[in-house]
Each structure stands twice: as structure tokens, then as C-alpha cells.
Specification:
Radius of gyration: 23 Å
Structural class: alpha+beta
Strand order of the largest sheet: 3-4-5
Shape: elongated
Order of helices and strands: EEEEEEHEHEHHEEEEEE
Number of helices: 4
Helix content: 10-25%
Largest sheet: 3 strands, antiparallel
């Protein structure tokens, strides 16, 4: 049975796989004429829906990451072309972590990276000034894409709202947020992946989307614009390099 009741000889007969599309309890027993009924076995199957709808009416493009075969949607906003999804490249499990510590987090949000991981450099630089240019830094982005600079994030912020008052709301996805989703007018689809830091662990899933740039502030921090559940603006902050957050790549 699929409704939680104990099976009887008059219950629906299943002789093959049972499709489970929602959280439910499957209870089974075997019956045969002139034989003793088998013991009853129950299993609970939990299905969590991580889907977030894509904005309709947006002319999405795509980019293939030849390193692992993943394809990402892209979107043109003004003169810029952004990945409409956070990077989910793991370098065979050696880079980044999944939001919430499980694969479902990566499937929905992409991976969470420290600043040095986004740049593809030694973790030494999570506490030491790297220096050099922040323009066109390929980092771990797919070919022909790079880690956005502070200036490129500022351009995006102004492009979607010249007043900047509603930039965050406009860039957030229309679902997936704890209380206040956005309008996603341009198809950027900002999702609240939260972050990860040792030793505290995972935090802010459902309420914040922390984003990396290639631009440093000092030895231990780099620019990371943030989207928040209850704020309409685009928070411009300097984040600790050692914490893991999402990476949106931008086309060269």
C-alpha cells in the first residue's frame, strides 16, 4: 500500500517497481493461496523538491564546461553575459563543498568555495594579500568566463536598477527564499545558498546568497556582494576569504 494502511489480500497488487514522486510510506506483504502470509515490511521514502522555476520570457543562452560536461544557463544583462547559475565544478571532489553538506545542496545552489578556490590559487592567500589585477581573472570558471571584479558587480547593480534601491529584489529568484523571493526580472536567479565556515559549519541557507568577486580588500577579506531574504538592495560587503560561498562567472 502507498497510503500507510496495512496491506490485505484485497489491496492493490504490485508486481514491479513503485514510482515514488512525493514523501510517502510504502507498506508491503506477500499473499498466496494456501500459504502463510508473509511478514509486513514498511519503508519511508522522503522526497525533497529542490526545483526553482526559471523566469519565463528570458532569452537564456548556455555554456558547456568541458572539464566535467556540465552545462549552465547564461543570461545577457546590459552589455554583460552572466552565468544564470552558480558554478558547480568540483575538480573530482577536490574543490568546494555543498550547501547543507549534501549533494542536493550542490544540485540546487552550485558549490560553495573559499576565495582562494575561486581564483585557483593556494589557500595561503585566504589570509595573505594576493595583489595583482582583479580584471579578467579566469580562476576556476569555464573557458571564456572569469571571476567578476568589483567593478563588474557594480555595473550589474546599476544596470538592473539605476537607483540601486531594488537591485537585490530584482536579482533574486522568484522562489526558494525563506520569506521574500524576488522578481528575477532579468533571469539572474539569485538563490539563497548560504555559506560554510570552519568550525561553525553551514549557515544562512534560505536567507542569504553570498557571492564572490576577484577584488581584494586586504589580507583576509575580498569583496562579495550579498543578496538577503528581507532586503531589497544589493548589499556591498567585504567577506572573509576563508569562508565558502557561491561563485557566478561572467563572460570575457
Amino acid at each position: 500500500t502507498t497510503d500507510g494502511t496495512a496491506p490485505t489480500e484485497s489491496s492493490t497488487l504490485y508486481s514491479g517497481p513503485i514510482a515514488v514522486s512525493k514523501t510517502q510510506v510504502i507498506t508491503a506483504a506477500g499473499f498466496r493461496t494456501n500459504y502463510t502470509t508473509s511478514s509486513t515490511v514498511s519503508r519511508s521514502y522522503t522526497i525533497t523538491d529542490f526545483s526553482v522555476p526559471w523566469k519565463t520570457g528570458i532569452a537564456y543562452g548556455s555554456v558547456l564546461d568541458a572539464r566535467d560536461g556540465q552545462t549552465y544557463r547564461t543570461v545577457k544583462i546590459g552589455t554583460q553575459t552572466w552565468m544564470a547559475q552558480a558554478l558547480n565544478y568540483s575538480a573530482n571532489g577536490t574543490l568546494g563543498v555543498c550547501s547543507g553538506g549534501n549533494q542536493a545542496g550542490c544540485d540546487k545552489f552550485g558549490r560553495l568555495y573559499t576565495w582562494s578556490e575561486t581564483r585557483g590559487i593556494s589557500t595561503h592567500y585566504d589570509s595573505t594579500l594576493r595583489g595583482g589585477t582583479d580584471v579578467g581573472v579566469a580562476g576556476i570558471c569555464p573557458a571564456d568566463y572569469h571571476v567578476p571584479s568589483l567593478a563588474e558587480w557594480k555595473t550589474l547593480e546599476s544596470e538592473v536598477d539605476a537607483t540601486k534601491a531594488q537591485s537585490g529584489y530584482i536579482l533574486k529568484a522568484t522562489a526558494g527564499w525563506s520569506t521574500t523571493p524576488g522578481s528575477d526580472d532579468y533571469g539572474f536567479r539569485g538563490l539563497p545558498a548560504g555559506g560554510y565556515v570552519i568550525p561553525t559549519g553551514y549557515y544562512a541557507q534560505g536567507t542569504a546568497n553570498y557571492l564572490w568577486s576577484a577584488t581584494e580588500s586586504d589580507e583576509g577579506t575580498a569583496y562579495g556582494p550579498d543578496l538577503y531574504d528581507t532586503q531589497t538592495g544589493f548589499a556591498s560587503t567585504w567577506n572573509n576569504k576563508y569562508r565558502s560561498t557561491t561563485l557566478r562567472c561572467i563572460a570575457d
